[in-house]
Amino acid sequence: MSTSRAKKTLALLGALGIVTAGCSSPVTGTPQPGQPSSAAAAPTSGNPFSARNQCALLDRILAGQGFPKATPTVAQPTRSCASQKPSSGTEKGIEVGLFLQEGKLYTDNIAHPETARRGDINGRPSIEEPEQLNSPGQCDITMAVEPHSRANLGVTSDLTTAEACAQVEKYAVALEPLLPKG
User: Fold this and answer.
1) Does the N-terminal or the C-terminal CB of the chain have fewer CB atoms within 10 Å?
2) pTM, entire model
3) Which neighbouring-strand residues pair with 126?
4) At what angle do helices 54-62 and 161-175 cross, to 10 degrees?
5) DSSP state string for 87-122
6) Nearest alpha carbon to residue 172 among 110, 122, 109, 113
7) How far is 39 from 54, CA to CA, in rounded Å?
8) From the CA atom positions of the chain, what is the Rg in Å?
9) Are 139 and 127 within 8 A, CB to CB?
10) How confident is the model at residue 6 (pLDDT cuts 50, 70, 90)?
11) Is the pLDDT of residue 17 over 50?
């Protein structure tokens, strides 16, 4: 990715942290129950992520794919991390961000309910939102983490939006078993 695209990506990740910390606009409908997750047991504190490090989780799901070590984002360094693989040759640039947020439902703060898609990742309720911040080549998936928390994975890239969504889906499938079980 170019330097200006990388700056835009960091700004988008920062805005995502600010947007998701703001007021709620849930997607209508009722999630359908899925199969139980194979996630680890939730910690006893009020924060289901207290025993997890977002950068370590991101590094684990990106291992072996040419990404550098994940680093905390500027806007939410205690909750979010990102890793960017720049364009090289025929390979398009991609940045992946992970935001772990306690106390917010996965249905909160849907920027574009008209394009959001409700689903599940390994039985865990989720919402996929293409171009959440009106940026082509960007796609997010937010998964429920009980009680009342969520994990958000975002891809910002030089890819098409459909390709970005395929990538974030792949990463979400890898992340889901590593999240606390509700």
Assistant:
1) C
2) 0.74
3) 119, 143
4) 110
5) -BTTBPPEEEEEEEEET--TTS--S-TTT-EEEEET
6) 122
7) 15
8) 15
9) no
10) very low
11) no
Please state the φ and ψ torsions of residue 127, each to the nearest 5 degrees: -135, 130
Structure tokens at 181: 């079980």
Look-up: residue for tokens 């330097």? Answer: 3
176 exposure class (CB count in 10 Å sphere: 0-12, 13-18, 19+): buried
As given in the structure block, the two tokens for residue 49 are 């992520």
Q: Which residues on neighbouring strands pair with residue 120, listed in sequence order?
A: 125
Residue 121, sorted as left (phi over 0), alpha (psi -120 to 50) or beta, turns out to be: beta
3-state SS record for 7-40: HHHHHHHHHHHHHHHCCCCCCCCCCCCCCCCCCE
